[in-house]
Amino acid sequence: MEMTLRWYGSKFDTVTLQQIRQIPGVTGVITTLYDTQPGEVWSQERIHALKEEVEAAGLRISGIESVNIHEDIKLGKPSREQLIANYIETLENLGKEDIHMVCYNFMPVFDWTRTELARVLPDGSTALAYTQKAVDELIPEKMFESIAGDMNGTVMPGWEPERMEHVKELFEEYKDVTADDLFDNLKYFLEKIMPVCNKYDIKMAIHPDDPAWPVFGLPRIITCKENILRMMKMVDDPHNGVTFCAGSYGTNLKNDLPDMIRSLKGRVHFAHVRNLKFLDPNPETLNFEEAPHLSRCGSFDLYEIVKALHDIGFEGPIRPDHGRMIWGEVGMPGYGLYDRALGACYINGLIEAIEKNDRK
Ligand code: CS2
Ligand code: MN
Fold this sequence. Notes:
This protein is α/β, with parallel strands linked by helices. The chain contains 14 helices and twelve strands. D-mannonic acid (CS2) is lined by residues 65-66, 103-105, 111-112, 157-158, 207, 210, 245.
């Protein structure tokens, strides 16, 4: 496994490549062209420039998170033809620049959903958190305004203001879209892009929906073992794979994370490791916060998660996921330097222990 950190580019990230380079064991970044819109073609020149910048800092681009999917593709509208053609061109340009892993998601309207970006934990740090009650009381169109105040002036992935301007119309468009429609539209998209993925050996890695169940009456399909295996079979090509995001699948307590990983042998192309702490697991009143990566600090056994990844022979990029804001750091909630650096070291420690045991 290759330890990486997510990096949003020098214009948008408060963390620098030079800082990332000093985290022991981190050799690559997972990055993106953060100022592109879904549907836009990424030019080879821009990808090349990004690559040079990363390499000049002694790191490499281990993959992209994300090349976002335009809503019309998820909705299956006629305009998807052109948008898919553009996506293929972007993949081609990434392939020519020797980039072989692309993370994306297929969530309608909203990307991940949290109800608090800065819940104060007992130790004084702050973390992202979720309470069902808050979601139930929220008018979806107001979701953006309600969290914008906590973004510390950053633009958070999935919560770009341009996207949020159209939330109301989008809800209207998704009114009659069922989960099966969404599966069909995903299949259509994947079948179109598989040839270019095969040509350049680009592994597509779908990120789970977060939280892993339908929200605000919108269908969500990448939520559990049954659905993800359905998707793998639907387009049975190793380039159609997954981002195993422990924190996202783990929002749904019915998901057995190590078991899911083991069922996805050969199809996990990217791993996100993070811990959640459930203060109340009752689905009606559900309340959890994002915890430090250590198993003893949260509800997941990270050793078992990393062990399952190791056992299925996963060799791709892995990264700590959201961290808390600690030691007074100000930045994009979930994406500060310090707590993620601790997370990377902890996960690398687990990998070392597992590999050592293997040799015995
Ligand atoms: C991520 C998602 O930051 C996060 O919460 O888990 O934004 C993720 O990057 C996208 O859904 C992947 O396309
Ligand atoms: Mn994730």
